From TrEMBL:
The active site is at E314 (proton acceptor). It comes from Zea mays. It is a peripheral membrane protein. The record marks Y398 as: Transition state stabilizer. GO terms for cellular component: cytoplasm. The gene is LOC103627107. This is Aminopeptidase.
Amino acid sequence: MAAEQTAEQFRGQARLPHFASPRRYDLRLTPDLPACVFTGSVAVSIGVAAPTRFLVLNAAELDVATGGVSFAPQGSDQVLQPLEVTNVPEDEILIIRFNEVLSIGEGTLTIAFKGTLNDKMHGFYRSVYELNGEKKNMAVTQFEPADARRCFPCWDEPAFKAVFKITLEVPSETIALSNMPVIEEKVNGPTKIVYFQESRIMSTYLVAVIVGNFDYVEDFTTDGTRVRVYTQVGKSAQGRFALEVALKTLVLFKEYFAVPYPLPKMDMVAIPDFAAGAMENYGLVTYRETALLFDEMHSAAANKQRVAVVVAHELAHQWFGNLVTMEWWTHLWLNEGFATWVSYLAADQFFPEWNVWTQFLEESTVGFKLDALAGSHPIEVDINHVDEIDEIFDAISYRKGASVIRMLQNYLGAEVFQNSLAAYIKRFAYSNAKTEDLWAALEEGSGEPVRTLMHSWTKQQGYPVINVKLKDGKFQLEQTQFLSSGSTGVGQWVVPITLCCCSYSRQAKFLFHGKQEDFDLSASGFTDCQKKDGFWIKLNVNQTSFYRVSYDEELAARLRYAIETNKLGAADRYGVLDDAYALCMAGKQKLVSLLHLISVYKDETEYTVLAHIITTSLHIAEMMVIAAPEELVHLKKFLIDFLEPFALKLGWDAKSDEGHLNALLRGTLLTALAELGHEATINEAVRRFNVFLEDRETPLLPPDVRKAAYVALMQTVSKSNKTGYESLLRIYRETDLSQEKVRVLGSLASSPDHDVVREVLNFILSPEVRNQDAIFLLRGVSSGAHEVAWQWLKENWDYILGAYSGTLLTYFVNITVSPLATDEHGDEAEEFFKSRTKANIARTVRQSIERVRINAQWVKNIKAEADLGNVLKKLAYKH
């Protein structure tokens, strides 16, 4: 083998060769924080599995000199110097060629290197913070998916697990953190050397290092694990809630997975500049400030829930991802789908009053939307180049992944599912697993045909819509692949059908294997139910499975009656609306039918259902701007009249005994009314805001309604009157709370004046907005200004391409392009990106343009509804 090897054969490969693999890394790093550079050395104990003249590993954006590389075979005094060290930037690999053949056995590869603390929020990077009025740099790592190679040369793939011994040389006044506890510090004047305990075996993407100035709060779990939350100096009290959640979560997951948390400590750190929401580094979890910190006075209920769910998600990874790791990125969903699902399980355990399993349906809806595109991808997706990995950290891996896990748990039963998971984790602890391994464990534990059931859900993209008709006492079921374009796909699934008839006490369930199947009501004991005046039937009981349902006209009318008479649970009320909305977008139902359906929710009580009605209604209003602008006034009146009673009941001020969900609903309702131009809401918001501007502690504008007030204020802003805009910028500049900054950013672009929107978009590119926060401003663009945002993106594309990377770059494309709704815009986008698409955004570009085409078709369908104007007038003026 060694004689036949050439350097050329290692280029252009999806994965590293396996003739050598790491066992242990002895890594030393010395960051220079003011200069934003670092030096380092690594001694890697490797096992050579086949004779070779080459060692091939990952390195990117590192300076490695040939003279700084050597290999020492174990048991020999010989130190081999390489003939050649070749850096291949396009493949992010280092090819080391020796004159001698490296024999099978152990040895140590030593490499000296240096690099830059970049500003891209990946690899080894710098984050800027303020200490005593002075701006400083901290050094932070973010290695997932494939950026450890930007910090040190390594085998940067999940399957190459090893142990890590880390040493840092840092300024004496800083705190240095890594995955394991500090075992020794040696201070030498202005610097100190910090030695960390050797880690457990883990993948490179989970290694973490942080150097900066922090405060912290700490406590211990009941079995003695030390847990700390690190914050910027002066903010430690804001870490208290996350600390409480973490303590309970570690205990819960130890019991649920039947395996103790394996490390001696858990540190959670709030990082000012952070691209993702959080990162599950083993024993050292990093977060955006908004996902970890909670201020009792100035954080909203939504912030509290986000902290709880994100902390639970990241700590779930300590088992699902860190202890048992996917073999390759094809199986990313094993990490993210499970962590998403189990984070809701934890939140439900700790905060049952939040009704999080009903809120989980919002996760499913996001998965449904992406997976209804022809440009979606299977849960198990082939990854052929490192540039393709970032784009699959998406709603398929997270939301659809979590939804099919919930579906499977519901099918197998909670206890069987939990016991099988525990067996899987024990079997693959400190190792790697594939999706097949999980199915095998669940099949073994349950005796059910899990592989057969689940292959159709993870190996092909998409999901079915079950078309239901009632004929001669039988339900005729037919499955087809659902696509938002209205086309019919070719997929077919093994579908776990559940249905209830007239009551939740009358249920049936079965596996639907074919394209068509009849369900006999009489054979299932439902005959008497069908004869009742109030007869109704609902498939996908409690929305626990990942499919849509399309009912014939009679069954749909009966479900509307069941909603009006309060016969359906909250999850099913949500599901009926969400399916109807999706079918309407796809041209399978008329908009007038959807509007009539919305009107029957006038007595809705559940936050998640009302929030979804609002989201749906605002999207309809966006489409109407293009499809039927002359009818917009009637639609807005209908929606305002529908929402106003709920808002009047809740009011602006919290009641002393109200719950978490009312706090969430109040902000959502008032924001929607402001966006719809409701004068009374806008006037009251401006009144309260003016008091708040001069007194930030006033009870008149609590955190739950601030976003609503900010959006309302921006409705009054125009090119000739920017007072409200300037006031919000003042709030933004004066607060040091990230959640407050995000609230302001999410409101600024909601002005109806396009000149103001353009000015706000330019603000994104100013040094005042951290790169990670651009997404919030983009999401807030008012419904009539998407064209403005698209023109702005094109004009600034070269700058954006240079300043942003990874998922942040895909957000710019997705959020700006996807809302466009004409074929002309679709053509424009195709032409623009034809010469500008690289591998790291290719999937996002395709999906975004497909969404434009879908919107454009929906606009045409709406225009073709001859009775729309009359129906809207009747709905708007029915009183």
